[in-house]
Design a protein that fits this description.
alpha+beta; NADH Oxidase; 7 helices; 38% helix; binds flavin mononucleotide
Amino acid sequence: MNLFEAVTRRYSCRDYQNRPVESEKLEEILNAARLAPSARNMQDWRFVVVTDSEKRKALQKAAADQPFVGAAPVVIAACSNTNKRMNLCGQPYSSINVSIALEHIALAATSLELATCWIGSFKPHQVRKILNIPTSIEIVELMTLGYPADKGTSPKRLKLDEIVCYEQWNL
Ligand SMILES: Cc1cc2nc3c(=O)[nH]c(=O)nc-3n(C[C@H](O)[C@H](O)[C@H](O)COP(=O)(O)O)c2cc1C
């Protein structure tokens, strides 16, 4: 599958098969995250990969009790080891760097016929406790991963001319 196909086919999967993800595929997907760019190449991302069903159920509770979080065979807690911001633009390194890596994960998973969903609706202090994550580490997002049991959706997107302008702000 080429990149544009993966970009087009990726969707937020909220219904997973009860089938484990092969460790070779998981490693390939995680390697796609490892290769992501990061500001100053700091590679501040750290990932806790959770397959244990008790822990996944606990994560479901920490994630607004969204049932597919507990049902997905893999939940990834995507973390960063920095809480610093970029000097000039003021944006946090953590959310930008980790998000790029996570989208690498989402696209790599799609290309291997797996599916993902970003989970931003979660309580970090609960996730920290469940996974024993030190307080020095930022928990940026969770992501579910597994073989899809649904057909996928294609939510509407804005048109290009609604989101892009050229040479000066004109939106
Ligand atoms: C940062 C972020 C956080 C999200 N958090 C959740 C979430 O907690 N639960 C959920 O079901 N979907 C979540 N989503 C998925 C979005 O709802 C979804 O990406 C959006 O509706 C577009 O649909 P698509 O991903 O299928 O193209 C999140 C997506 C992003 C990028």
